[in-house]
Amino acid sequence: MLAPSVIVLEYICPLLGCIVANIMFAAPLQSVRHAISVGTLGSLNPTPWAFMTGNCIGWVTYSYLINNLFLLLANAPGLILSVWLNMAAAKLQYSDRISHNM
What we know:
By secondary structure, the protein is mostly helical. It is 83% helix and 0% strand.
C-alpha cells in the first residue's frame, strides 16, 4: 500500500497541475471564437500562440523521453489547441489582408 504522502506528491499534485495547465491553455478560446464570429482579429495578439506551440512541443517531447504521463496529459491538449489557435489566427489575418486590399 502506498503512503499518503506518496499518493499526494506523485499522483494528486501532478493531476492538479494537468488540470491547471489545460485551463491555462484554454484561456484564449473565448476570444478566438469571438474573433472568428466577427471575422477579424481586431486587437487580439496571436503571437503568444506561436510560443505556446513551441513550448508544448518541447514538453510533449520531454514527457515522451522520460516516460511521464502527467507531463503528456498537461501539454498534449495544449499542443493541439495551440495549433488550432495558430490556424485560426492565420485564417483571420489572411481575411483581414484580403478585405483591406479590395
